[in-house]
Give the backbone structure.
Amino acid sequence: MVKEIERVGIPVVHICTVVPISLTVGANRIVPAVAIPHPLGDPKLEIQEEKDLRRKIIEKALRALTVEIELQTVFED
Amino acid sequence: MRLELGHIFIKDIQFGEETAVKDGILYVNKDELIKLVKEDDYLSRVDVELARPGESIRITPVKDVIEPRVKVEGPGGIFPGVMSKVTTVGSGKTNALKGCAVVTTGKIVGFQEGIIDMTGPGADYTPFSKLNNLVLVCEPREGLKQHDHERAVRLAGLKAANYLGHAAKDLEPDKVEVYETLPLIEGLERYKGLPRVAYVQMLQSQGLLHDTYVYGVDAKQIVPTILYPTETMDGAIISGNCVSACDKNTTYHHQNNPVIEDLYARHGKDFNFLGVIITNENVYLADKERSSDWTAKLVEYLSLDGVVISQEGFGNPDTDLIMNCRKIEEKGIKTVIITNEYAGRDGASQSLADAHVSADAVVTGGNSNEVIVLPKMDKVIGSLDYVETIAGGFDGGLSPDGSITVELQAITGATNELGFNKLTTKMI
């Protein structure tokens, strides 16, 4: 899906736990997620902490959309 | 560590007054067994049924399959840390009732449980159709949580297996196999000049009912470590797995791991089989990185020339598999990986979710998406309620005539990644 959307000229950020698979399938902008069963959340956190975590990941992904890249890029912290 | 594994051949299983083996027939006191298993308050109903090779019986949803064994001599007991004290096992003498198994079924726990047909086309796809099965039908107490339900049925199966295994304690085995692994340095001296080989076994540990236990420890909490291969023969590793039926390693697979048996067969002749490195398949990327780093580190530390790596399950564990393979190959050590494929019903899609050029020696257990029609059986042990919703099943799969159409994924052991079946894939 990432590749098909990019093919029509819209940049995509792939938020994904298993970064190596994302690299293998050819995503260009990758933001690491938390874990496979809960990519954007963490059941071990309190509600407010979890909301902060989710916002952090989404904001990072939005920032990644604005960055010019030459190669596949993983946006770590 | 040296283990003598006594085989007692079971040609039939019947109910009887006393649980015992006579002339190759395993007699089971049904009431005594049910009473023992029902000691667990979590189970509201337990029944025992028999399913023999060739009978028109479908068992579903299958959770685990277990071979009855008993410790005859030496430290510890079968299933250490769970059914016996946590003592290190794998030495002395063990007796196994070959040709029979305990199969657990009953209300579904997760959505990934399996089907065993005792006859017809489906029987060809599962090794367990060739066994005399004692089927434990376990129904949970109302309102029991999923994890407690899984544990209750897992322990019920192990308890029943040990109960049957006990009948073999004083028997003279029909055949004895001897397996021996020397301490590292002694082995290196004895087999000087032979290539050094080990087995990297990946254990399913994704959580959410996808778990494996090592001496009672949940495998997602381990870091890669080394076992003597014979430890697995005494039940050091057990399945708590509700993952796809075709490629979950049941406890029976762990007890009878063909990779270990085949490596032993050539040990000391063609190579020196140093041992088993167990590792896990967790859901956090950091865990995957750590475990594959440590696996590669142990492989290097043991100065190995080559390793065989087996996977369990599919999807994200494909990444663990490729990480193990790549990181070990980067150290200049050869690998062969054993996996299976999800290549679509026509076999034309990409087989694994991840790939790398270092994975250039691959053994496959076949395509789990292949579709099969299983004709109606005269008797169902368990329930057909779930055959459309288990992994590999689909809406409309159950026909009014009682036949079911499923992917091989739904058949217990069909595309096993230890090579414990007959399927593979032809390259065209």
About this structure: Chain A touches chain B at residues 17-21, 24, 32, 34-37 (CB under 8 Å).
